[in-house]
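Protocol step 4 of 6: structure prediction from sequence.
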Amino acid sequence: MTLTLHSKMKLRDGKEIPIMGFGTYEMDGREAYTAVKHALEAGYRHIDSAEWYYNEAECGRAIRDFCAASGVPRSEVFFTTKLQNNSGYTTSKRTISRSLQESGLGYIDLYLMHSAIGGPKKRAESWRAILEAKKDGFVRSVGVSNFGVRHLQEMVDATVELPVINQVDLHPFMTRTDIVAMCRKHDIALEVSWAPLVRGYRFKHPSIVRLAQKYEKEPAQYSCVTLCRRHAFEGYIPLPKSSSAHRIKSNLNVYDFELTSEEVAHLDSLDERLVTDWDPTDTP
């Protein structure tokens, strides 16, 4: 699959999402604002935030300031945020309104449930609130994050509108074949969440080093390159993050080669169920 910085994926609701996104997990205040500005100036048009990241206001302000300075319309920047707690219908409605106000962007391109924690009843109530926000035009597309097979099956069985995306910890060292199969069966796109670079845990892995040398990339950058090319092959959406202006730019240097099918298969064979942060996909 030939990719460029401007490549997009069509979601199951007909909307399009830029395939390369910029993550803001563990960034707050000035750091989040500055990093998002650098990312937008470098060419990213997909910014991923969350209520739980406590940076919706900074991300939104960076997007607004960039658009005002550059002339790029708001509609060209895809903004995602997430519901921190599945606390039921009424609380979720209030939370969505607060996120909309915090970002100051007029609407949210993609709104996710951040996890399945809370139990079936609270999940169902929160999802109903999210779907209503979509109907009312406050959010354009709706999805989930960190959902396991049982949680997705619960939605299928309830015959509700299904999420367009499941954002989950997914990389060559955590392939999650069961979740991938479930999402593909129901046309739910897969987005690589907070650790597309595996949080640096496998930069010195022999396979990473060998491929980095072959394609003349730094191992740190190659992790991003590997994921982008592997995700292109698999149909995933990566969300690399960095607060360094240099690294933000270098993470986009991924379009000058393509992995072979054999290399992708080898990367997929490295699975060791490496959890890089938290893993609520098995929550009841």
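Step 5 (inspection) to follow. The chain has a mean pLDDT of 89.
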